[in-house]
Write a structure and sequence with these properties.
The structure holds 2 protein chains of 2 kinds. Chain A is mainly α. Chain A has 17 helices and 2 strands. In chain A, helix 3 (56-82) packs antiparallel against helix 12 (245-271), helix 9 (202-221) packs across helix 10 and helix 13 crosses helix 14 (305-326). Chain B has 17 helices and 22 strands. Chain B has helices spanning 46-53, 76-81, 99-103, 118-131, 147-160, 177-192, 204-210, 233-241, 302-309, 333-338, 348-352, 359-364, 379-392, 409-421, 439-454, 466-472, 495-502; strands spanning 8-17, 20-30, 35-39, 61-66, 69-71, 84-87, 165-169, 196-200, 213-218, 221-227, 259-270, 276-287, 291-295, 318-323, 326-328, 341-344, 372-373, 376-377, 427-431, 458-462, 475-480, 483-489. In chain B, helix 4 packs across helix 5 and helix 13 (379-392) packs across helix 14 (409-421). The longest helix of chain B is centred in the middle third of the chain and has 16 residues, at 177-192. The chains are: A mainly alpha, B alpha/beta. Chain A binds chain B through residues 1-9, 11-14, 16-19, 217, 221-223, 226, 229-230, 232-234, 236-244, 301-302, and chain B through 310, 312, 332-334, 336-337, 343, 345, 350-358, 361, 365-366, 368-369, 372, 375-377, 387-399, 401-403, 406, 419, 421, 424, 448, 451-452, 455.
């Protein structure tokens, strides 16, 4: 080690150079906290039944359960995204995990399963272990496809997104035809252990909290966590720094698949059935959305556990708010809400850059065509949920506001 | 005085990047029809200034006049419309497209039905290539061309724009003598046709052969603009450097110790290239306490050599590498680290820095195990760990948890060297460590490298700048197209001798 020690500069850090956190949360994360509070308050006030005030516990239980289920595999998505990858297969992994769990129980205790009787803790333990092991195997498959075959992560996990669900269904049908009189695409799960989980929201919430804490420790306080960030930030440099990048990726994809497998068990418990055709369908995008809303960069290297937790809460609160406001058929709009929330949250985080960089939101001909597109979208959605005249008004208002923004932007440059 | 407006006139141009002032109030006037050379050390701001002229960057301050009219370029297309074409130091070609497609990229000729008219573009391309004495087929895949020919493709692009102002950013850095001569003839022809040339170079000989006037930049400031006839290479070099680097301190003989590394007949195949190899029959020795310099032009194989030694160049190499007399074959940089080797990579941004980690995280990355308390990384232990090397290498940072991207290039490089010092290496491989670093920081890095070497490290240093090698190295090996074409001891090395070896083959 060199011996002569010139003094290091002791200039105080300019604000821009410091990593600014307030009580451990970054600015964007505080913005999410505020947004969550606002959404809850607004819904409580606007909702005609005032269910947030009249039945706060039931509402809280609902949101907590949904958030915990989403959050568990959103944490997995976060780790994969921080490592610079993407896992599109989480939803199918959920279905496969549930199917593995149910088919294992069916194969080990067919009589009890068909008679809706307890199968015993040993069988349940084996089934859960089999599901988690499946998660590990799927993660390994992903890592092999990505590091050895050199498929882009998007392609590798797109293949398993399609393939695993189909595999789960086939497995379900072949197992049911072997162990029960009729072939079926669903398996009912009535074991009391699963019922306990369904009836006690505190179990998934506790599991989510513990997992979040472990993930947070992993990312902020372990060598592996640092290597995950380094890998996502600059893969080539990470390799040249002597990091076994393929092993780090292996871990990341296993973590992603195993959290999805864990979530799959809770979905089975929640719905008392393993249904590979529909369970978890499209959920991978909700997980990625929660991570992105929470500040993860899909370019890799950036993201925090508190961010993802808040992102998951925010998504579920907004979805719940809409279901309170629309009353019937709100689930139709879930995808739309997730889409809009992601766009708005990420746009919001870039507003500063857009303003200071002199960048336009509605530039040129593209911007001109975007105005009626957005107005039509807003008008259409509002007229379907709140009636035709409200829809017309919303469309017109959007058109006017965006038109004004466009005029303001072109004035600003001139 | 000239009554016609100047071709280009820049007034008080400033450009800041996070942590660096790249240009500080530069004023420059370029007359119509002249060859105007811009000289300066790496990091003096030459390239940034030219990128502003060609619309790649927007200045933070100052005004830009082209042919007497004030302009503001939002992008390169605006600059091209105003008749300015730039040939970048890093060539901006799409390797998978044909030569003709590259020449007309973004301005494709269209035929009937608005479909792309390849024949017309190829014909035009052939005409331009005839002017440039270039024998390449317009249908050739651009990635298959030699660097010199790729440069001509860029020039053909500029010609096809009928640009009145052509900026050339160190065009000869990768060219052979014959190719440089061809380029000079091309420049003469362009000037005859009425074009104005801005020529960036730090090769004095070339500048004095080509330029009508010379502008010197240093540390982002304009030093002076003079007629070629009124000055001398020695004077321009003195303006460029500005301050003397105390090279004498390094002149005390170092004492080479035991032999650390022995490389024999190292060959690295390159099947997809006509030459067939990246390195051929490279042999060298490295002793403790000495600096072995490796000279060579761009593409000569310097980086490939260091990466192969470090286990990062792929498993296809043949030959022997011996560490302390024992043959080794690293399949991953990790194994090289374990054998006490360290590689400071050439391209800091792409291969060295982790922009999302802070200063401490960047320094501790390879030795984070030492900051473990039980299973977890202790922040305090990590800070303690990195403070030593950060102070020893003289990193100037607002704090250990400042963003690494906010530091200047020199300080970033010191952070990366600190990272490797923590792994306690025996052999330090430095791949062009001072590229893009300002003169002052360079001098500090030289002193640091010299000190590390005297403390017993074996150092292999590559550099794109010969003076650097001549200042630091005990011995210099010259690579040309993957082969060793010369070896010089310190006292017999001269710039001319090395250049001759580097352009051989």
């Amino acid at each position: 080690m060199p011996s002569s020690v010139p003094p290091a500069s002791t200039r105080p850090a300019p604000a821009a150079l410091r990593r600014s956190t307030i009580f451990g949360l970054r600015r964007g994360e505080w913005a999410l906290v505020v947004a969550i509070c606002l959404a809850v308050l607004l819904t409580g006030l606007v909702d005609a039944n005032h269910s947030y005030f009249n039945q706060p516990l039931e509402c809280l239980r609902d949101i907590a359960r949904n958030t915990a289920l989403l959050g568990i595999f959103a944490l997995g998505a976060t780790v994969v995204i921080i490592a610079g990858g993407i896992d599109l297969s989480a939803g199918s992994m959920i279905a496969l995990s549930g199917t593995i769990c149910a088919t294992t129980m069916l194969a080990l205790a067919p009589a009890q399963m068909m008679g809706f009787k307890p199968v015993g803790p040993l069988v349940v333990a084996l089934a859960v272990a089999a599901s988690l092991l499946t998660g590990f195997l799927v993660g390994t498959l992903h890592a092999w496809l990505i590091t050895a075959v050199r498929l882009p992560p998007f392609i590798a996990t797109l293949a398993t997104l399609v393939g695993l669900r189909s595999f789960a269904r086939a497995l379900c049908e072949s197992t049911t035809s072997s162990f029960t009189p009729t072939k079926s695409a669903t398996i009912n799960v009535a074991d009391p252990l699963f019922k306990t989980i369904r009836d006690n929201v505190s179990i998934p919430v506790a599991v989510f909290c513990v997992l979040a804490f472990i993930t947070w420790l992993l990312l902020t306080r372990t060598v592996l966590g640092r290597h995950l960030q380094a890998l996502g930030g600059n893969e080539q440099a990470a390799r040249l720094a002597g990091i076994r990048t393929e092993n780090v990726k292996w871990f990341a994809y296993c973590f992603g698949a195993m959290t999805a497998a864990l979530a799959g068990l809770f979905y089975v418990a929640n719905e008392s059935v393993a249904a590979p055709v529909n369970q978890g369908r499209g959920h991978e995008l909700n997980a990625i959305a929660a991570a992105v809303v929470g500040g993860c960069s899909l370019a890799g290297g950036v993201g925090t556990v508190p961010g993802t937790v808040l992102g998951a809460i925010f998504l579920r609160v907004v979805i719940d708010a809409v279901s309170k406001l629309i009353k019937t058929g709100a689930d139709v709009y879930e995808g739309l809400i997730v889409g809009v929330v992601v766009v708005i949250a990420v746009t919001f985080s870039q507003l500063g850059q857009i303003a200071s960089g002199g960048r336009h939101l509605l530039p040129g001909r593209l911007g001109l065509c975007a105005i009626p597109t957005l107005a039509l979208l807003a008008g259409g959605v509002v007229s379907m949920t709140a009636g035709r005249s409200a829809g017309l008004a919303a469309g017109a208002a959007t058109l006017t506001l965006l038109g004004l923004l466009r005029v303001w932007e072109s004035r600003r440059t001139a | 005085m000239h009554t016609a407006p100047s071709a280009v006139s820049m007034n008080g141009i400033s450009k800041r990047f996070p942590g660096v002032v790249a240009l500080d109030g530069v004023t420059l006037e370029v007359r119509r029809g002249e060859v105007h050379a811009i000289c300066g050390e790496n990091g003096a701001g030459k390239s940034t200034l030219m990128k502003i002229l060609s619309g790649v960057y927007q200045p933070d301050d100052g005004t830009l006049l082209v042919a007497g009219r004030e302009v503001r370029f939002a992008g390169t297309q605006n600059a091209e419309a105003a008749g300015i074409a730039i040939i970048h130091q890093e060539l901006a070609l799409v390797e998978d497209l044909s030569v003709a497609a590259n020449v007309f990229l973004g301005r494709e000729k269209r035929g009937n039905l608005g479909l792309i008219d390849d024949a017309a573009m190829e014909a035009e391309c052939r005409r331009l290539f005839a002017l440039l004495e270039c024998q390449v087929s317009p249908q050739e895949r651009t990635g298959n061309l030699r660097v010199g020919d790729q440069q001509l493709v860029e020039i053909a692009k500029a010609l096809s724009l009928e640009a009145s102002i052509v900026v050339m950013d160190e065009p000869t850095s990768a060219l052979t003598e014959a190719e440089s001569a061809r380029l000079e003839r091309t420049i003469a022809r362009l000037v005859e046709g009425g074009a104005t040339i801005l020529y960036i170079s730090h090769k004095m000989e070339e500048v004095f052969r080509l330029a009508d006037r010379i502008t010197v930049l240093r540390d982002g400031r304009h030093v002076c603009t003079v007629d070629r006839a009124a000055t001398s290479p020695r004077e321009v070099t003195a303006w460029m450097v500005g301050r003397e680097i105390a090279t004498e301190a390094f002149r005390n003989p170092r004492h080479a110790g035991e032999k650390l590394l022995e490389v024999q007949n190292l060959t690295l195949p390159w099947p997809e290239h006509p030459r067939g190899y990246r390195l051929a029959d490279v042999s060298l020795n490295l002793h403790a306490g000495e600096i072995l310099g490796i000279a060579g032009l761009m593409g000569a194989g310097r980086t490939e050599l260091l990466e192969t030694l470090f286990g990062a160049g792929g498993p296809t190499w043949t030959g022997t590498i011996r560490l302390h007399g024992k043959p080794v074959r690293f399949s991953h940089p990790r194994e090289a680290c374990a054998a006490r080797m360290a590689l400071v990579t050439e391209d800091r941004k792409r291969l060295g820095l982790f922009p999302d980690l802070d200063v401490a995280g960047n320094v501790s990355l390879c030795s984070l195990d030492q900051a473990l308390r039980g299973w977890l990384v202790s922040r305090a232990a990590e800070e303690e760990l990195v403070t030593g090397p950060v102070q020893a290498t003289g990193v100037k940072t607002p704090g250990l948890h400042a963003a690494i991207t906010g530091l200047s290039g020199g300080n970033q490089q010191k952070c990366i060297i600190s990272r490797w010092l923590l792994t306690n290496p025996e052999i330090l491989l430095l791949d062009d460590p001072t590229r893009g670093i300002d003169v002052g920081a360079k001098a500090e890095l030289y002193a640091l490298i010299d000190r590390l070497c005297r403390e017993g490290l074996g150092v292999i240093l590559t550099s794109s700048e010969l003076p650097e090698l001549l200042t630091l190295a005990d011995r210099i090996i010259v690579l040309a197209e993957g082969r060793v074409t010369g070896e010089f001891a310190r006292h017999e090395a001269t710039e001319a001798g090395i250049m001759e070896a580097a352009t051989a083959g």
